[in-house]
Amino acid sequence: MPTTLNAPKTLNIFYDKDIDRSKLLSKKVAVVGFGSQGYGQSLNLKESGANVKIALRAGSATEAKVKAAGLEPISLEQAAEWADIIMFLIPDVQHGPVYKEYFEGKLKPGQALVFSHGFSIHYGEIVPPKDVDVFLIAPKSPGHLVRSEYQRDRGVPSLFAVYQDATGDAKDLALGWAACLGSGRAGVIETNFKDETETDLFGEQAVLCGGAAALVKAGFETLTEAGYPPELAYFECLHELKLIVDLMYEGGLEDMRYSISDTARYGDVSRGPRIITDETKAAMKQVLSEIQSGEFAREWMAEYRAGMPEMKKLVEADRQHPLEVTGRELRGMMSWLAAGKLVSRDKN
Hints:
Layout: E1 3-5, E2 11-14, H1 22-25, E3 28-32, H2 36-47, E4 51-56, H3 63-68, E5 72-75, H4 76-82, E6 85-88, H5 92-102, E7 112-115, H6 119-122, E8 133-139, H7 143-151, E9 158-164, H8 170-181, E10 188-190, H9 193-208, H10 210-225, H11 230-239, H12 241-259, H13 262-275, H14 278-293, H15 295-305, H16 309-319, H17 322-331
Parallel strand pairs: 3-4, 3-6, 4-5, 6-7, 7-8, 9-10
Antiparallel strand pairs: 1-2, 2-10, 8-9
């Protein structure tokens, strides 16, 4: 029986001892795309005994990376015919167009569509036929970490959800996939497409990426505008953030506060709430409301279809921000950062 997490909304957690991989390992799997998640998940599946091929557009420059990784590329047209399970690991905004061009009307009863994020199903970019399985496996880490943890005989936790169970096997296939990624070693948590999609988007926007990046920039600007050297501002507002996040990652706020000085601890609990205020939380609630209503999804799809002019402008502005300019110079002094990097753009 799965372990139950005691939380306001009770969730089931499965481990390797709860999971039978045999149904998954009897299937032919086509992974669409070979980015960070495609790289990590495909190699873990292959080394776990799954029959995996990588589905690419004809003439894709990624084909060389696929072959170098010891995997077999096939065309998207072949994937629809050959595979029992088709996993979409291309960017969310490409799901709808690729599905419509290569898979819509061509899927056979009993095949499975799989995702690592519920965006395209939840917001209707893909409307699957009723006679196929639809489920998701969402590792809670970038694909490069999915891979490196597996290679260390460990694993990252994953979420799974079944949207459509046409065969009666969807849950077993989902859990088998998660186990083959190594997630059965860490825990596989059952959820649904709505909750996975909306919480994932909120976390990215309000805390992990958007919120953290904005907080770091604001701190850097506050110090440099007060006349402090940018190098000191970089170390205090960005570089040392990893040390604090690692402590929270391993043991929550409690371990972080145990490890820092009394001065830092008092500054944390007395000044932090003055930075993240009720107004900040109200803004977070507005961000969540836009996700729940579909407003963000519509805005993002329109931005993508227009060629992403606003995103490119904002990303380039940050690339030229003094924080980033200073950081590139300082990181060049830290030779150890290049050793063992998770991301290698030449490979994945």
